[in-house]
Automatic annotation (TrEMBL):
<dbReference type="GO" id="GO:0004143">
    <property type="term" value="F:ATP-dependent diacylglycerol kinase activity"/>
</dbReference>
<dbReference type="InterPro" id="IPR017438">
    <property type="entry name" value="ATP-NAD_kinase_N"/>
</dbReference>
<dbReference type="InterPro" id="IPR016064">
    <property type="entry name" value="NAD/diacylglycerol_kinase_sf"/>
</dbReference>
<dbReference type="GO" id="GO:0016020">
    <property type="term" value="C:membrane"/>
</dbReference>
<keyword id="KW-0443">Lipid metabolism</keyword>
<feature type="transmembrane region" description="Helical">
    <location>
        <begin position="13"/>
        <end position="33"/>
    </location>
</feature>
<feature type="domain" description="Phorbol-ester/DAG-type">
    <location>
        <begin position="113"/>
        <end position="166"/>
    </location>
</feature>
<keyword id="KW-0472">Membrane</keyword>
<dbReference type="Pfam" id="PF00781">
    <property type="entry name" value="DAGK_cat"/>
</dbReference>
<dbReference type="InterPro" id="IPR002219">
    <property type="entry name" value="PKC_DAG/PE"/>
</dbReference>
<keyword id="KW-1133">Transmembrane helix</keyword>
<keyword id="KW-0862">Zinc</keyword>
<keyword id="KW-0418">Kinase</keyword>
<feature type="domain" description="DAGKc">
    <location>
        <begin position="204"/>
        <end position="345"/>
    </location>
</feature>
<dbReference type="GO" id="GO:0007200">
    <property type="term" value="P:phospholipase C-activating G protein-coupled receptor signaling pathway"/>
</dbReference>
<dbReference type="InterPro" id="IPR001206">
    <property type="entry name" value="Diacylglycerol_kinase_cat_dom"/>
</dbReference>
<comment type="pathway">
    <text>Lipid metabolism; glycerolipid metabolism.</text>
</comment>
Length: 548
C-alpha cells in the first residue's frame, strides 16, 4: 500500500513544481503580450492623431484624465494643447478633443477664438474673471486657453468666453496666428506676394520668433523645450533640427515681414554655426531681406558664443520658458564677425581640394585641439555615455591631465610660422596657438584679457580684428581657466596666416577637430551675422566691452 501512495505523492509534487515554474512564465508572457498590444495601439493612435502625443510613465504634477476625470500617474499628453489622458481613454480623448490649429481660421481675418482645455491647469495660475487661484481642487476642473494661456474657473466660464476673440496673451508679438498662415496660403495660390496689409504683418511691434532646437545637444533638454515652446507658441514655429535641416526651417522667414523675424537656437555653439551657415545660404539665394536675428539658448558643453552674447554658459531648466521668450523680445541686435579658414595642404602636386571652414569662435592648434580630438573620437565610439554636460567636461579634464604628462604638442614654435597682417611674428617656446574672434574660450574663460593685471583692451566680436595668443601647454591652459595665469599675447590682426612646416598636429575650428599634416592656414574676414545680445546676463567686464 505504501508503494502506490508514495508514487502518487511524488507525481503530485512534480505537478505542483511544474505549475509553480510554468505559471509565472505564462503570466509574464501574457502580460508582455498585452503590453505589446497596448503599445502598438497607442503608437497607432499617435501616428494618426493631429495631437502631438507623448507617453510618460510618471507625470511631473498631479494629473487627471480629460475623459473620465480620474487621477492618473502615467499616460499620454499633448505637447501642443496640454491635453492629458489615461491609456484606456486615449482613443476617446483623441476623437473627442481637437488640438489647436496651426493653420486655420478664416482667411483674410485676424480673429482667433480661445481654445479651451479643461483641467490640469498650471500651478499658481489665477482666474481671468475673478482673480482667484485656479486648479486648487483635487479633480479635473477649470479651463486654460492653449493660445493665450489664461485660466478660468468652471463656475466663471460663461458662453461669451467660449466665443470671445483670443488676443494670444503676453506673447502675441511672437506668435504667428493660424489665420495669418491661411491668408498667406490663399494669396500664394493666387500668386500674390504683397503681404503688407495682412494682419498682423502690418502691426508695428510684431516680431515673430522661430524656435530651432537640437534634441541631441549637451544635456538632452531639447525634447522637453520643444514641448514647452509648442504650448506657448504656434507649433508651426517650432522645429526639431534632428528631423528637419535649418535651411528648410528658415524658409518660413520668407512668409514673414522683412527684418523682423527672430530665431532662438536651442543647442551648443556647433548648432549655432549650423544655423548661421543656413542663413548665409539665404543670402546666396537672394533672400537677404528675410535674414533673421539669432538668439541662443545654450544646451551644449562649451557655449562660449552664448556666453559672449550674454545668454549664459549653460541652460539646465533653471529659467522658465516664459522668461526666455521675454528675453528674446527685449534683446538688442548686434553684428558678429564670421571668418573664412582655408587649409591648403603642402606640396605642388597635391590634387586634393583645400579644406574651408567658417569660424565664429576660434581656431587653434595644439593642446586644446588635441583634447577636442580625443573627446570627439571617444564620443563617436560610445555616444550614449555623452548625454550630460558634467560628463563631457570630466572627459575633457581627463584628456587635459593626460596631455600634461605626455606633452604631444611640445616645440610647436619650431614647427610653425605665424604671420599677422603679412608681418612674421617671432614665437617664444609654445605648445599651442589660439586665434580668437569672441571674448570667451574654453567654457567660460576670457582668454585675451587674462587676469586683468595688464591694460589690454577687451576683445570684441564686431571689430573685424582677431586676437592671437599662445599657450605653453595643457597645464598652462588650466592655469588660465583658473585665473592663475595669463596667455602669451601675440597680437591682433585682420588676416592671420599660419604655416605648419613639418609633422602632423591637431587643429580645431569652433570645437570641430582634425589631425593635420604640413599645410598653410589662412584666416580672413568672410561676412557678418545678425545676432541678439541679452544684456541681463552680462558681467561688468561684458558691459565695458560692449560700450567700447
Amino acid at each position: 500500500m505504501e508503494g502506490p501512495e508514495g508514487g502518487g505523492a511524488e507525481w503530485r509534487l512534480a505537478l505542483w513544481t511544474l505549475l509553480s515554474v510554468l505559471l509565472p512564465v505564462l503570466l509574464t508572457a501574457w502580460c508582455s503580450l498585452q503590453r505589446s498590444r497596448r503599445q502598438l495601439l497607442i503608437r497607432d493612435i499617435f501616428r494618426k492623431s493631429r495631437h502631438d502625443w507623448s507617453y510618460t510613465d510618471l507625470f511631473g504634477q498631479p494629473s487627471y484624465c480629460c475623459v473620465c476625470g480620474e487621477h492618473i500617474l502615467r499616460g499620454a499628453f499633448c505637447g501642443c494643447c496640454g491635453l492629458r489622458a489615461g491609456e484606456r481613454c486615449l482613443g476617446r480623448a483623441d476623437q473627442r478633443f481637437p488640438c489647436k490649429e496651426t493653420v486655420g481660421g478664416t482667411a483674410g481675418t485676424s480673429l482667433q477664438q480661445h481654445h479651451w482645455v479643461r483641467g490640469n491647469v498650471p500651478l499658481c495660475s489665477c482666474c481671468a474673471v475673478c482673480g482667484q487661484q485656479c486648479g486648487t481642487q483635487p479633480k479635473l476642473c477649470d479651463y486654460r486657453c492653449a493660445w493665450c494661456q489664461c485660466t478660468v474657473h468652471d463656475e466663471c466660464m460663461v458662453d461669451c468666453l467660449r466665443t470671445e476673440e483670443c488676443t494670444f496673451g503676453e506673447f502675441r508679438d511672437l506668435i504667428i496666428p493660424p489665420s495669418y498662415l491661411s491668408t498667406i496660403n490663399e494669396m500664394r495660390k493666387e500668386k500674390k506676394t504683397s503681404y503688407e496689409k495682412v494682419v498682423p504683418y502690418c502691426r508695428k511691434h510684431w516680431m515673430p520668433v522661430i524656435i530651432l532646437a537640437n534634441t541631441r545637444s549637451g544635456n538632452n533638454m531639447g525634447e522637453t523645450l520643444l514641448g514647452e515652446f509648442k504650448m506657448l507658441l504656434n507649433p508651426v514655429q517650432v522645429f526639431d533640427l534632428s528631423k528637419i535641416a535649418p535651411a528648410k526651417a528658415l524658409q518660413l522667414c520668407t512668409l514673414l515681414p522683412c527684418n523682423s523675424v527672430r530665431v532662438l537656437v536651442c543647442g551648443g555653439d556647433g548648432t549655432v554655426g549650423w544655423v548661421l551657415d543656413a542663413i548665409d545660404e539665404m543670402k546666396i539665394k537672394g533672400q537677404e531681406q528675410y535674414i533673421p536675428q539669432v538668439a541662443i539658448l545654450p544646451l551644449g558643453t562649451g557655449n562660449d558664443l552664448s556666453n559672449t552674447l550674454g545668454w549664459g554658459a549653460g541652460y539646465a531648466g533653471e529659467v522658465p520658458v516664459e522668461e526666455i521668450l521675454r528675453n528674446v523680445m527685449e534683446a538688442d541686435g548686434v553684428r558678429l564677425d564670421r571668418w573664412k579658414v582655408q587649409v591648403t595642404n603642402k606640396g605642388y602636386y597635391n590634387l586634393r581640394k583645400q579644406k574651408e571652414f567658417t569660424m565664429n569662435n576660434y581656431f587653434s592648434i595644439g593642446p586644446d585641439a588635441l583634447m577636442a580630438l580625443n573627446f570627439h573620437a571617444h564620443r563617436e565610439k560610445t555616444p550614449c555615455l555623452f548625454s550630460s554636460r558634467i560628463i563631457n567636461k570630466a572627459v575633457y579634464f581627463f584628456y587635459g591631465t593626460k596631455d600634461c604628462l605626455i606633452q604631444e604638442c611640445k616645440d610647436l614654435n619650431k614647427k610653425v610660422e605665424l604671420e599677422l597682417d603679412g608681418e612674421r611674428i617671432e614665437l617664444p617656446s609654445l605648445e599651442g596657438i589660439i586665434v580668437l574672434n569672441i571674448g570667451y574660450w574654453g567654457g567660460g574663460c576670457r582668454l585675451w584679457e587674462g587676469m586683468g593685471g595688464e591694460p589690454f583692451p577687451f576683445a570684441r566680436y564686431d571689430d573685424g580684428l582677431l586676437e592671437v595668443v599662445g599657450v605653453h601647454g595643457s597645464f598652462h591652459c588650466a592655469q588660465i581657466q583658473a585665473k592663475l595665469g595669463n596667455p602669451v599675447r601675440l597680437g591682433q590682426a585682420h588676416t592671420v596666416r599660419l604655416i605648419l612646416k613639418s609633422s602632423k598636429m591637431p587643429m580645431q575650428v569652433d570645437g570641430e577637430p582634425w589631425a593635420q599634416g604640413p599645410c598653410t592656414v589662412t584666416i580672413t574676414h568672410k561676412t557678418h551675422a545678425l545676432m541678439l545680445y541679452h544684456s541681463g546676463e552680462q558681467s561688468d567686464d561684458d558691459a565695458s566691452s560692449l560700450s567700447e
